[in-house]
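Q: What would this complex look like in 3D?
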Amino acid sequence: MASLKELKGRINSVKSTQKITKAKQMVAAAKLRKAQSAAESARPYAARLAEVMGSLASKVTVSESSPKLLAGTGSDQVHLLVVANSDKGLCGAFNANIVKAARLKAKELEAQGKTVLFYLVGRKGRAVIRREYPKQIAHMFDTTEVRDPGFTEAERIADELVAMYEAGKFDVAHLFYSKFRSALVQEPTGQQIIPVPTPKAAATQSEAVVEYEPDEEEILAALLPRYLKTQIFGALLENAASEQGASMTAMDNATRNAGDLIGKLTIVYNRTRQAAITTELIEIIAGAEAL
Amino acid sequence: MALHFELVTPAKLVRSEDVHMVVVPGTEGEFGVLQGHAPFMSTIADGALKVYRTENAAPEEIRIIGGFAEVGDAGLTVLAERVEG
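A: Here is my prediction, written as structure tokens for the whole assembly.
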């Protein structure tokens, strides 16, 4: 049986762990609110842009001459998986879930004989993917220096992706991130981002003839990269909110577990203490009787 | 007679208000939008939007980067990547 001092040390160390998890939980709760409101305020732009894209795409027929971002390269041999993770841990299975979704897709694609490349955003997914696909990481995008990945980062990611795409490094890109459902539920999602899947046109648009300046195709060509940026930006925001949500839940659990553990250890400690006292008493009484 | 004008960036909805007229620096030339403008879409050169709150008021300038304008039944919507000032 562990000595009293040892037990006391263990209780203290669990207590300080609990303090950390509790602090992290409260920080996550505060950040979650911020991340959620950021995600909400990004919605109008994304919705408008999707609307415009939808109505434009319904007017332009996809042909050889249409922009490559929309029409594709004509092959689908090389797939790029863009995996967006967080930079910090302490958020439960959040990163693991995203990586798992990406790996499933990678296996599926490889089974079909395609080439798979990775583009990693954030620090946390790197180790796992590097271990499994050491030679297939196209690029690692670093977000450790920025506090909250924002539109500037989305823009840089999109620009790099488009540059790689134009250089013919890949044919299809999928984006993996975690969709924020609630503080308790985050859903790892994968979606195709290049070639840009055309958003569905709103069902009943005004019948009036819309004038375009310059023409539809040029506008579409100008809007495609922007649409891509918005999608990546949206994913980054969803990811940020999910991370905080996951972190909050995980830390809540950890705090509760630490509490349970402290309770158990305290009982053991008290029993040991009592046993020690009893032994001492017996020793004294036995000594007195022997006289 | 008011034109509903909305300015949206990825970060937030910057403006949503009724104004008299907005002059937009389109890529193929400036154009002014009043209420009842025909449906219209245009890309915007980086530059300043001029917002006239009333007919004779001095215009308020909003500099935008990476913009796109849409005029529909609901009014004028400007999507911009960045808004300065």
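A: To summarize the key features: The interface with chain B takes residues 38, 41-42, 44-46, 48-49, 52, 56, 150-151, 154-155, 206, 208-214, 218-219, 222-223, 226, 229-230, 233 of chain A (CB under 8 Å). Chain A has six helices and six strands.
Q: Very helpful, thank you.
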